[in-house]
Amino acid sequence: MEIKGFIPNSLLDWEGYIVSTIYLPYCNFRCPYCQNPSLVFSPKSLSTIPFEELQNYWKKNKKWIDGVCITGGEPCLYRKLPGLLREIKDLGLKVKLDTNGTFPRRLEEVIQEKLVDYIAMDIKAPLDVASYQKSTGIRREFYLGRIVESIQIIRNSGLDYEFRTTVVPTLHTEKDIEEIASYIQGARAYYLQNFVPRDTLNPAYEKIAPYPREKIESICKRIAHYVVKCGVRGK
Ligand code: SF4
Description:
Layout: E1 5-10, E2 19-23, H1 37-41, H2 51-61, E3 67-71, H3 81-90, E4 94-99, H4 104-112, E5 118-122, H5 129-136, H6 142-155, E6 160-167, H7 174-183, E7 189-194, H8 213-223, E8 229-233
Parallel strand pairs: 2-3, 3-4, 4-5, 5-6, 6-7, 7-8
Antiparallel strand pairs: 1-2
Helix pairs in contact: 4-6
The chain binds iron/sulfur cluster.
Iron/sulfur cluster (SF4) binds at residues 27, 29-31, 34, 36, 40, 72-74, 100.
């Protein structure tokens, strides 16, 4: 498992914490709006950052770095993920894990072994095969069952967590977002992220105008009663 990206410190990736973010390559989805196409398609073109370098950085800056966000790509693709998280936890750092929810067994493992403090899971579309296929660019139906399972695992984990959807005009209507919110009724947090038409996996998506921020905010207001906290991210 190679690390293909590193942000030494960020105030944006985990609300309330100063964190580093690391990027793991490859993904089993092909979301047309994905903004990390080189990480998904051609990670070999990106240089690998030795883990020892990161360990040294964290040891030196431990006083003011609270934790590490693990993102991708899809971090849960890797059998060795628990080992990586253990090494980070051993340094006394908190761990936030981003996932698309297609590896429920891996999630169970890292939760049971107390290797993660916060989970952020994407819900790409309403939980039906056609919508999910369209939003992820993948034709496999069996992923849907895994996603449903991951939602349950995260909700029952006792951990702090969020679900989130990148809202794209050609993929999501207001009704779709409401359907997702009603599916996760009672969840701790649901964030709507406005789509950014830049460096997209499908270049045609660079020509799609995102919804105005006000529209996303109004959707958020309308669905807020379904969840404990509903928020908007992005311009
Ligand atoms: S946006 Fe989609 S394709 Fe890109 S990393 Fe996330 S899940 Fe994978």
